[in-house]
Design goal:
Blueprint: H1 5-32, H2 38-46, H3 48-65, H4 96-115, H5 124-147, H6 152-155, H7 164-182, H8 198-216, H9 225-251, H10 259-273, H11 282-299
Helix pairs in contact: 1-2, 1-4, 1-8, 2-4, 3-4, 3-5, 4-5, 4-7, 5-7, 8-9, 8-10, 9-10, 9-11, 10-11
Length: about 300
């Protein structure tokens, strides 16, 4: 069976786009925090492009996709990916090695997502150790259960097109638990909070939106109708959530649109569409974008 060169080129581009999301997230979070936390925040996010990649090579790929222990996790039989046939072709005729690199970028961006919930109230060394342990004990087992053919949740019929469960719910629950454990930031509420750099927030949002096409469309693993559908639904959901949030700002207490609100709404729509990007209709994508915006807005009042 020969390589599908179009699919290979497409997946290389998608992989680069997903990697691009992590520095984009560093700009997004760095622009939102206070001046005293900006450097630590951006470092805490960007350092994962090194740590998570090495961890994935050492043990992550093996625990995620090689072997099977009760449907919960793979085996540690391929440390440093020794013995993995990188040239073996997948169903879409791309090399296994390329698929492994694509999944590697998901392993980078996922822990980066919950960093924004704990910056300013956690030591860097603790965060570094936590990310490593969390990846091994939480993330890799979840990847195996959902995306490995032998995974427990996959056998039960769980459908996660591009990471709604593996990435976003996983990171969201982690952020909630960490925040509850660490408690409020010191002097929270006593000192007025000002965002460090709003243009960075817009820049980070733009990078994330562009990268999300690699995230969602790339999860089709080839140049096909599913990839096109994922790209279209992702765009519609992001636009709907953005406009919904903008109108809410205009016609409620703010009385005018805000850049942070527009950017936040955009990302809400992208998160909401991710698990079903290749499956839902355009109408469904628009509905998800609208519902995601209202759900986040409602939650933020409590």
């Amino acid at each position: 069976m020969l390589l599908n060169l179009a699919n290979v080129a497409f997946m290389i581009l998608a992989t680069i786009l997903v990697l691009f999301m992590t520095p984009g997230l560093a700009f997004f979070y760095g622009g939102l925090v206070s001046k005293r936390n900006v450097v630590n925040t951006m470092l805490s996010v960007y350092m994962l492009t090194g740590v998570a990649i090495l961890l994935w090579i050492i043990i992550g790929y093996s625990l995620s996709f090689e072997g099977n222990l009760g449907g919960f996790i793979g085996s540690a039989s391929h440390i440093f990916m020794h013995g993995v046939n990188m040239s073996r072709l997948t169903a879409t005729k791309i090399p296994t090695g390329l698929y492994a690199i694509f999944q590697m970028m998901f392993a980078v961006i996922t822990p980066a997502l919950f960093v924004g919930a704990v910056v300013g109230r956690i030591r860097f060394r603790f965060l570094l150790v936590f990310v490593c342990l969390w990846s091994i004990l939480i993330y890799y087992p979840m990847v195996h259960m959902v995306w490995s053919p032998n995974g427990l949740l996959a056998r039960l019929g769980t459908v996660d097109f591009a990471g709604g469960t593996v990435v976003h719910i996983n990171a969201g629950i982690t952020a909630f638990v960490l925040s509850a454990f660490l408690g409020k930031r010191i002097h929270y509420g006593d000192i007025p909070h000002t965002h460090y750099n709003l243009p960075w927030v817009l820049l980070g949002t733009a990078i994330l939106w562009i990268g999300w096409y690699g995230f969602n469309a790339g999860s089709a693993l080839g140049v096909n109708g599913v990839a096109v559908q994922a790209m279209l639904t992702s765009t519609v959901a992001a636009a709907t959530a953005m406009v919904s949030w903008m109108f809410l700002d205009m016609f409620t207490k703010n009385g005018k649109p805000t850049l942070v609100g527009v950017c936040t709404g955009t990302l809400c729509g992208l998160v909401a569409i991710t698990p079903g990007a290749g499956y839902v209709t355009i109408t469904g994508a628009s509905s998800l974008g609208w519902l995601a915006h209202w759900r986040v807005t409602f939650s933020s009042t409590f």
